[in-house]
Structure to design on (571 residues):
């Protein structure tokens, strides 16, 4: 692992846009990673697995992971993920680390909301000759959706402002003037998995690390920039909340007649 | 199908229906549900004209150590209404749930015996549960529509069985069955006598309907998969008298084309709508099974007479 000196001293930050884009991609990537995995695990644990020692153990482990200090997740990323992702700090490593942090909460809240779906729905569906998996897909998960989204909203609120693990895995590009171009970074390759993205493997800026660097670590000369960055971070998090709450309202409307 | 859902065994597992009458009168023995009366096989043997739809032989059910249903054998005739009556805890709902293997979903339940649908054993290890439950539909005690629109509730079964294709993929391949779906929804709702009331709001959420309408929607949902047998587990017990009478009319109407097996607590209801009645008494025992008129006017068993005249239960 190549640990770079975090901030090139004396360099001026290259603006705030790279950090905004970085944070948005981090949250999107973490959510895409954690939600399918967390919801899938919740479905397995509540609908399929024998309730017993194994599920109890998973529950304890999940709760423990949710209260694990974020720097530990960062160290896990630096020691385990980065050597397997090309050896350098990268946006992808940041996404995965934040995804691992989001995973326990998604799992806990999904389990609770799947358990809360009345058994009458499952009975009704089974009596129509519909298989268990189809029932989960078409009845149980839609009914559990608002609860799942609540969990994601709470989790995104936590990971969007996470700083410590990102210092370890995201890499330093405080003076970058161009944002990572993730969408443009996709290209096809001849071997499996046939798709590659170099932008995901490059370092990126992010809002919380930039706030930390400018205000606390004293990089660059203008503290105003740090405060502005903090304000923008709040706005970005609020935007994520708004998206989540809109989605939750949509699914609740579909379930309720009011 | 191995369900991990821990459905509580239905209330029928608790033998709370029997009330041992503590009285000094000499007839105490016979008025209580637990007399020494021996059940005779001829009481349970019912001769009927027409074809047998379901044939149950020596069916036993245990919930853990609780012997919920004891050696029940009965034949259910096609296109008729068969009522199952008895005090709570007598095993009638357990029996009903055996007929479409819904008891498989209760982990603690152990079932022994044979149930044949038109000569095919449904407890065969190779039996196809999906096919079975398509042929034997079920309506539950409390209305349980899905939190979806009325239209989606009706077309849910056929869509899952691939009889109706809808959605983006179907549209792309030019196999969109929106028209067929519309016809199916209209036909099923008309059969369930609900069409007039909801035809202008098919896309509204089904949970916005009244309890009686929800129950008729559940019947329509069951009819949409085109079953042969309809099992009803006290379908009117959560409904007011007007909604109940609508359900009763509907049951009589359905018995022309379907074999209906209905569990009820309400003896007048059983007398009104059924062709033949089976009486279960405490302990999961089938005591008498005969023409409804015979059961209500001149039962063989003293205990059945006591039960239907309201002396216990």
């Amino acid at each position: 692992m190549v640990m770079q000196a975090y901030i090139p001293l004396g360099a001026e930050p290259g603006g705030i846009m790279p950090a905004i884009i970085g944070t948005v991609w981090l949250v999107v990537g973490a959510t895409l990673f954690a939600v399918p995995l967390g919801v899938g695990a919740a479905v397995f644990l509540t609908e399929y697995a024998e309730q017993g020692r194994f599920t109890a153990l998973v529950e304890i482990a999940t709760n423990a992971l949710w209260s694990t200090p974020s720097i530990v997740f960062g160290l896990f990323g630096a020691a385990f993920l980065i050597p397997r992702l090309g050896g350098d700090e990268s946006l992808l490593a940041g996404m995965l680390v934040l995804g691992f942090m989001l995973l326990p909460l998604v799992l806990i809240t999904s389990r609770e909301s799947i358990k809360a779906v009345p058994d009458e729905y499952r009975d009704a569906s089974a009596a129509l000759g519909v298989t268990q998996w189809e029932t989960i897909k078409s009845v149980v998960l839609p009914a559990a959706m608002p609860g799942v989204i609540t969990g994601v909203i709470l989790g995104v609120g936590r990971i969007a402002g996470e700083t410590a693990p990102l210092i370890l895995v995201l890499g330093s590009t405080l003076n970058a003037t161009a944002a990572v171009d993730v969408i443009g970074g996709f290209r096809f390759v001849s071997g499996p998995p046939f798709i590659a993205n170099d932008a995901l493997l490059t370092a990126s800026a992010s809002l919380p690390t930039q706030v930390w660097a400018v205000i606390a670590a004293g990089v660059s000369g203008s503290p105003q920039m740090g405060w502005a960055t903090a304000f923008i971070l709040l706005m970005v998090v609020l935007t994520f909340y708004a998206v989540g709450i809109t989605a939750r309202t949509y699914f609740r409307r579909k379930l309720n007649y009011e | 199908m191995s369900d991990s859902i821990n459905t509580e065994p239905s209330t029928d597992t608790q033998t709370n229906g029997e009330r041992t009458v503590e009285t000094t009168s000499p007839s105490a023995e016979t008025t209580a549900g637990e007399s020494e009366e021996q059940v005779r096989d001829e009481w349970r043997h019912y001769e009927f004209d027409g074809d047998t739809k379901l044939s149950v032989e020596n069916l036993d059910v245990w919930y853990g150590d609780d012997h919920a249903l004891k050696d029940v054998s009965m034949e259910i005739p096609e296109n008729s209404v068969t009522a199952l009556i008895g005090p709570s805890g007598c095993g009638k709902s357990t029996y009903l749930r055996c007929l479409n293997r819904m008891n498989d979903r209760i982990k603690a339940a152990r079932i022994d015996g044979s149930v044949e649908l038109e000569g095919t054993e449904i407890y065969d290890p190779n039996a196809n549960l999906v096919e079975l439950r398509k042929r034997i539909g079920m309506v539950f005690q409390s209305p349980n529509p899905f939190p979806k629109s009325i239209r989606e509730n009706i077309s849910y079964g056929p869509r899952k069985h691939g009889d109706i294709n809808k959605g983006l993929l179907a549209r792309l391949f030019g196999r969109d069955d929106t028209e067929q779906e519309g016809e199916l929804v209209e036909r099923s709702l008309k059969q369930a006598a609900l069409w007039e009331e909801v035809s202008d709001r098919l896309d509204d959420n089904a949970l916005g309907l009244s309890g009686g309408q929800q129950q008729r929607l559940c019947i329509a949902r069951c009819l949409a998969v085109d079953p042969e047998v309809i099992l009803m587990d006290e379908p009117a017990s959560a409904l007011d008298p007007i909604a109940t009478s609508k359900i009763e009319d509907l049951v009589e109407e359905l018995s022309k084309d379907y074999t209906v097996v209905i569990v009820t607590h309400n003896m007048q209801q059983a007398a009104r709508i059924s062709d033949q009645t089976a009486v279960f008494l405490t302990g999961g025992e089938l005591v008498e099974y005969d023409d409804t008129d015979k059961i209500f006017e001149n039962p063989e068993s003293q205990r059945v007479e006591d039960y239907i005249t309201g002396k216990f239960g």
